[in-house]
Amino acid sequence: MGTDDWTWLRGEVRAAAAAFAEQVRSAPDPAAPVPNLDWNVTELAAHLASLAELYRRQHELGPDFEPPDDWAAFSVAARSHLVGATVDDLAELLLDETETILAPAEPDERRWLYGCATTVANIAAALLVECILHGWDLARITGNRRQLTRRQALAGIEQQMSILSVFVDPAKAAPLAGTYGLRFRGGLDFTYHVDERGRLAVERGRPTTADARMNADPAAFIAVGLGRMSPILAGLTGRVVAYGRKPWRLARLGDVAVDGV
Fold first, then answer.
1. Contact 131, 161 (CB under 8 A)
2. Are strands 178-184 and 212-216 parallel, antiparallel or unpaired?
3. pTM greater than the 0.90 cutoff
């Protein structure tokens, strides 16, 4: 990532974190459940505020990370040290921790996350997407929903692709063994390789041949993948289009995640 892109990304992350912090502070009831989530407002704020510490611990583990048996319990444990904190405390912690994530001068410096090699810039993009999408969740209570732009989404997709294999259930993916091409509007191409044992490998670039291909608006792809948009709506509006010999397989690949994520 170049200097100008890193400057842009840092600005976007800061703005998204500040907007989320303001939403949390403006929520009428910190104990109110957040629509479509299993968390209340305070728990959601704790999740965002705990991410920087999670990223630090993951980097320390490096490639030795072992996926948990229960991802939902893993998420609860990751924020357990913040139990009892107020929403104001959590909002301030999020802003402070955002600066620690953005502090490195080299965006391509290696970082480890869930046992996968990624970069400083990708970690920053992960926080950006978390703040915006969880801002959508909170907007059902507070209003002020922010847009996920194409450029922001492309940065988030770079991050998602670097760790995607960890979240694939091999038993679900094995029947879909094959090669798939994904083109994202705005300039990114990736290839999925699913082997007979259900293991996923992701590569940059377009495959020469593929069982199916997808052309997607990056923001819609993220929203569908993280449960904030109906895949039917995305297809009907042309924001995510599958084609090729076996296009139905791409729809099924969207449902091979491990339980609890």
1. no
2. parallel
3. yes
Model confidence pLDDT, tens digit, residues 94-118: 999 999 999 998 999 999 999 999 9
**Dist CA 131 CA 63 (whole Å):** 26
Structural element, H or E, at residue 182? strand 178-184
What is the tens place of the pLDDT at every residue in 169-186? Answer: 999 999 999 999 999 999
Give me the phi and psi of 202, to 5 degrees please: -120, 130
- 3-state SS assignment for residue 111: strand
CB atoms within 10 A of CB 20: 28
Structure tokens, 128: 């950006």
Strands 240-243 and 212-216: antiparallel
> Taking Cα atoms as reference points, which of 8, 14, 16 lies closest to residue 147?
16
Radius of gyration for the alpha carbons in the chain, expressed in angstroms and rounded: 18
Q: What is the DSSP letter of 86?
A: -
Q: Which of 216, 169, 215, 214 is nearest to 194 (CA)?
A: 169
